[in-house]
Design a protein that fits this description.
This protein is mostly beta strands. The two termini are 21 Å apart. 0% of the residues lie in helices and 72% in strands. A 7-stranded antiparallel beta sheet has the order 4-3-2-1-7-6-5, with no helix packed on it. The chain has no helices and 7 strands.
Length: 64
């Protein structure tokens, strides 16, 4: 297992508290919804005001 932290995530109008994990080949979030973001699918990253925005093929995941 890689690095793990508790956070709040937003994706496609959904919001949930849960755990974010940084693994070797992907970033995953597990809470009321689940999402796995393969690094190869990431199109843009932005960190500002305590939030990480990850734009990838299926949408934009925001982690606080």
């Amino acid at each position: 297992m890689g690095l793990e932290t508790k956070c709040v995530a937003w994706l496609d109008g959904q919001v949930s508290e849960g755990k974010c994990q940084l693994e070797t080949e992907h970033l995953s979030f597990r809470g009321e919804f689940k999402v796995t973001v393969p690094f190869a699918s990431i199109r843009h990253l932005n960190a500002a005001e305590g939030k990480l925005s990850v734009a990838f093929n299926a949408g934009t995941l925001i982690l606080d």
